């Protein structure tokens, strides 16, 4: 699809890009293909798409995956989504809903035990589309998220999905380039966002997407970010609430030395802090972005 095609499509459905919904539509087919490739889709995969909009990515997903559920907030896209439903009556569903309020707990139900297909949470049967064993790889209630969403909800959506009770197995998202770089950062450049994502999975930048790949063009460049979620968490944290309280308190003084923030922001005893840091071999002068996740976990365990 090029700008001309997109404008024609919008005109024929009497639509205009709505800034309050963060609508920047993808017009570069090579980017669409790169997103679909990054999602690594098989014929028995269930996909959750957020923000289908004009449905260009949606159609590409429906061609590959066993089942696609798309959640769109803007009811103006109803006619477009209905037209996609006509083309993919068996494996496409959509809901007009806010992805930030959606109940991900009931997103998908699992495959029949005899492998004959699966039932979605609407009670519909979905027999395997393909009997090709190379394409039918995995069973279970796993699902993959693929989305081009407004950038102001990126952080919230990631947080909701990675901490959901039924987490997806992977998330492929377009994000602002700097946000993706921030999320994949290593100790030295870590942030609260990077730590919270890396606790649950492995983030990776699949590609950079220039602003001109969208209409209307956003002000910033984008990246295709893929997060592979751990099936079994790599890290063990006894008290996550306490863990994040400490991490956030320290990052509130991002440029400050960690022993100062621990004493001032968490009101801990000076000598105790010195003792804990020395036991963990953390320099009292270290800045929060320098600590590895392992060190944060140990710090969390030592602080009562
Ligand atoms: N996926 C399409 C559209 C991207 S624009 C494409 O790549 O071209 C972002 C889309 O997310 C819009 O359709 C917008 O209406 C939708 N959206 C915005 N906020 C949303 C929310 N909270 N929940 C679900 N969809 C949302």
Structural notes for this entry:
There is one protein chain. The chain has 304 residues and is α/β, with parallel strands linked by helices. The chain folds into two domains: 227 residues, 3-Layer(aba) Sandwich (Rossmann fold), CATH 3.40.50; 63 residues, rRNA adenine dimethylase, C-terminal domain (Helicase, Ruva Protein, domain 3). The strands form three sheets. A seven-stranded mixed sheet has the order 4-3-2-8-9-12-10, sandwiched between helices. A three-stranded antiparallel sheet has the order 5-6-7, with no helix packed on it. Strands 1-11 form a two-stranded antiparallel sheet. β8, α5 and β9 form a beta-alpha-beta unit. α5 runs parallel beside α7.
Throw out a few tags for this protein.
Helicase, Ruva Protein, domain 3; alpha/beta; 35% helix; 3-stranded antiparallel beta sheet; 7-stranded mixed beta sheet
């Amino acid at each position: 699809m090029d700008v001309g095609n997109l404008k024609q499509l919008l005109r024929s459905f009497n639509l205009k890009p709505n800034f309050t919904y963060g609508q920047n539509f993808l017009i570069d087919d090579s980017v669409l293909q790169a997103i679909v490739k990054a999602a690594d889709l098989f014929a028995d995969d269930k996909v959750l798409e957020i923000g289908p909009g004009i449905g260009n990515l949606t159609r590409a997903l429906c061609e590959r995956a066993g089942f696609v559920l798309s959640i769109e907030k803007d009811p103006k896209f109803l006619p477009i989504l209905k037209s996609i439903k006509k083309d993919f009556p068996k494996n496409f569903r959509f809901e007009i809903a806010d992805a930030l309020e959606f109940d991900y707990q009931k997103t998908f139900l699992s495959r029949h035990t005899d492998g004959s297909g699966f039932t979605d949470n609407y009670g519909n049967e979905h027999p395997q589309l393909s009997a090709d064993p190379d394409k039918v790889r995995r069973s279970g209630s796993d699902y993959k998220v693929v989305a081009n969403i407004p950038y102001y909800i990126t952080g919230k959506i990631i947080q909701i999905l990675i901490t959901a009770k039924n987490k997806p197995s992977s998330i492929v998202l377009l994000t602002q380039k700097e946000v993706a770089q921030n999320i994949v950062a290593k100790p030295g450049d870590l942030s609260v966002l990077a730590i919270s994502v890396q606790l649950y999975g492995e983030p990776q930048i699949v590609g950079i997407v220039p602003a001109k790949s969208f209409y209307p063009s956003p002000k910033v460049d984008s990246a295709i970010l893929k997060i592979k979620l751990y099936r079994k968490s790599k890290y063990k944290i006894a008290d996550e609430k306490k863990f994040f309280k400490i991490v956030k308190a320290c990052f509130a003084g991002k440029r400050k030395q960690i022993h100062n923030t621990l004493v001032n922001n968490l009101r801990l005893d000076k000598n105790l802090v010195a003792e804990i840091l020395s036991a963990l071999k953390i320099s009292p002068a270290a800045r929060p972005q320098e600590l590895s996740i392992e060190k944060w976990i140990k710090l969390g365990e030592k602080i009562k």
